[in-house]
Amino acid sequence: MLKTLYIKNYAIIDELNVEFERGLNIITGETGVGKSIIIDALSLVLGERADTEAVRKGADKAIVEGLFDVSGNQKLKTLLKQNEIEFSDEFILRREVSIKGQSRSFINDTPVTTTLLKVVGDMLVDLHGQHEHQSLLRTETHIDLLDDYGRLEGLVNEFGQAYNKTHQILNELKELKAKEQQLMERRSLYEFQIKEIDAVNPHTGEEDELENELRILENAERLFSATERLYQMLYEGDNAVHDQIILARNELENLAAIDTSFEEPKKEANSAAAIVDELAKFIQQYNSKIEFNPERLEGIRNRLGNIALLKKKYGGALDAVLQLREKIGWEFELANNFQTEIDSLKKRFDAERKITSDIAQRLSVKRHEVVKKANKSVVQALIELGIPNAVFETSITTSPASDKENAIIKLGKDFLEATTKGMDYVEFYISTNIGEDPKPLAKVASGGEISRIMLALKMILAKSDRLPLLIFDEIDVGVSGRIAQAVGQSLKKLSQFHQVIAITHLPQIAGLSDTHFVVEKIEDKQRATTRMRKLDIEERVEEVAKLMSGEEVTKSGLESARELMGMK
Q1: What per-residue confidence (pLDDT) applies to 561?
Q2: Contacts of 543 (CB under 8 A, 6+ apart)
Q3: What's the rounded Cα separation, in Å, for the pair 412 and 359?
Q4: What is the pLDDT of residue 453?
Q5: Do the beta carbons of residue 155 and residue 359 sit within 8 Å?
Q6: Which top CATH class is 1-131+470-535?
Q7: Which residues of 115-134 are buried (b: 16+ CB within 10 A; e: fewer)?
Q8: What's the average pLDDT block by block, 10 residues per block, for the chain (568 residues)?
Q9: Where do the DSSP E strands lie in 11-124?
Q10: H/E run at residue 553
Q11: In angstroms, rounded to a whole number, what is the distance separating the alpha carbons of residues 343 and 176?
Q12: How far apart are CA 470 and CA 492, in angstroms?
């Protein structure tokens, strides 16, 4: 829902900050005070085209900011995540338009494109009147409205998953076919490279192992003489470290018999003797294993040379060589068994396509069943809203696939186009005048009429429609009396499931508001400005009375207003 709308330096609005409520929000005011300007400003923050003429005279830029409560809106959360924008339950859209013609858009203080702002706006608001944010006029939404009405979401999701799985296999098949020529051309090269690498047959980490062994063999004499000297120093030579430590330990034992403070040093001497023993033992064993092997030395040098040649030719590192071997090995195998792989993927594709086609057919049957009831319900709602001669039809059609081989849907001998929503193309047709054939909705309806048509549809789809905010501008054009009352009641019912904002001149509609705002123009000698304020209960009664009888409000007028508002 829209919590607050802030407007600064837009048209005749100096500065305006409005807090909206849940339920039915009504806006009234005399003609020309700027009611539609407020809706224009809101449409701007929803991504509509910016016009520098809208910047208030004397200002550098106009600012419009909307604060929305979007808690639980998973679709929006996913969209923001895809665009690396932080999501929060309170969500700010802001638009700035400068007199130089520059327009900047922000979502949660992150600069974004106007295109993304519009996508987000379409997910939050449906604006009906002389504006573009009208879901009914976008034919691509008709299928969603029909599915929502028929509670077909589960079946639509089931189809979507099957479609994506089938499409993924199809893409794999296309990629494999595209590789065929390339694989065949490179087959000989791969065969040569595999033989060359396999002739050396290196393994992970081998280079480090060989270099370590090479270093030892190249320094065998030095290692032998050094360990021999160390062993003599530690254990066997004159004044060997081991003997000196034993003498020191014996002396410490004598001292400890006199003074117990030498007990700890005596223990440390014992530990030192044990350490020297272990060290001498290791050095003796190492010395005995030293190998003087010129043949092994030469063999290691040759193998390292072969590995170096592979590295130079195939990637600069042994890991790169091994990765290449794995890749070309797979592709060489694929080239040798190409038709087998193609046949296997085709089998999988045909199996998944059958599953997908069966679901598409079930979904289409359900849609045709839903249409009869939906058409009848919409016509009845239109009659109640003052369009008595309406004919409403829902067209469900399919299209032959342009590429039969890669078609996702196959029913019998027919190959059909499809999207993630099924094989059906849905469009609403309407005639509002007797004797006229129904035409596409987007080409027929306009102004207050489209608002009432949308109101009729929303009344039917209210509980399932996902758009949280509906705005109706000019919904009362051409209606009065009983029809006005019906429009008001429909808006009231609709506000149980949506936040609704409606501009009206009719007391029958205004009297049903949960929250009532009045728009006023304030003029002084310098210039005019528009303000919008929330009315308390008594002010609401007076405003409804004005709508009923004009500026001069009488006691009887106030009584009639209370009666209309259900306060008696």
Answers
A1: 86
A2: 28, 510, 516, 518, 535
A3: 14
A4: 79
A5: yes
A6: alpha beta
A7: ebbbebbbbbbbbbbbbebb
A8: 92 91 91 84 86 86 92 84 87 90 88 90 76 68 87 93 95 82 74 85 88 87 90 88 91 91 92 93 90 88 89 86 85 74 89 96 96 91 86 94 92 94 94 86 66 78 64 76 85 88 90 92 80 92 87 82 82
A9: 13-19, 24-28, 61-69, 90-98, 103-107, 110-112
A10: none
A11: 11
A12: 12
End-to-end CA, the chain: 31
Asked whether 251 and 272 are in contact (CB, 8 A), the reply is no
Query: Nearest-CA neighbor of 428 among 453, 403, 463, 452?
Result: 453
Q: Three-state SS for 42?
A: helix
Residue in the structure block whose two tokens are 């272990």: 278
pLDDT score recorded for residue 448: 56
pLDDT score at 466: 59
The single-letter DSSP state of residue 533 is: E
Q: Give pLDDT, residue 16.
A: 92
Rounded CA-CA distance 394/371 in Å is 6
User: What pLDDT is attached to residue 483?
Assistant: 83
The one-character DSSP state at 422 is: B
Q: Report in angstroms the alpha-carbon separations of 393 from 49, 142, 363, 429.
A: 32, 12, 19, 5
Contact in structure between 527 and 502 (CB atoms under 8 Å) = no
pLDDT at position 139: 87
Q: Which residues does 434 contact at the CB level (< 8 Å), separation at least 6?
A: 389
The region, left, alpha or beta by phi > 0 then psi within -120 to 50, assigned to residue 182 is: alpha
Pairing of strands 2-10, 13-19: antiparallel
Q: Cα–Cα distances in Å, from 236 out to 223, 230, 231, 284, 553?
A: 18, 10, 7, 11, 124
- Are 379 and 459 contacting, i.e. CB atoms less than 8 angstroms apart? no
The structure tokens 């009231």 sit at 492
Type of residue found at 151: R
What sign does the dihedral 365-370-373-378 (CA atoms) show?
negative
Sheet order of strands, 425-431 included: 391-397, 425-431, 439-440
Burial of 483 (0-12, 13-18, 19+ CB in 10 A): buried
Residues in the chain, how many? Answer: 568
Determine the number of helices (DSSP H) and then strands (DSSP E) in the chain: 18, 17
Number of other residues whose CB lies within 10 A of the CB of residue 530: 22
Q: What are the CA-CA distances from residue 201 to residues 64, 193, 303, 477 (Å)?
A: 69, 12, 10, 84
Q: How many CA atoms lie within 13 A of 115 on its CB side?
A: 1
pLDDT at 134: 63
Domain extent listing, the chain: 1-131+470-535, 206-320
Cα separation, 95 vs 45, in Å, equals: 5
Closest C-alpha among 82, 167, 158 to residue 119: 82
Quote the Cα angle for 24-28-33, to 5°: 145
pLDDT (0 to 100) of residue 401 = 93
User: For 17, phi and psi rounded to 5 degrees?
Assistant: -135, 110
Say whether 415 sits in a helix, a strand or coil. strand
Q: Which run of H or E residues covers position 180? A: helix 153-200
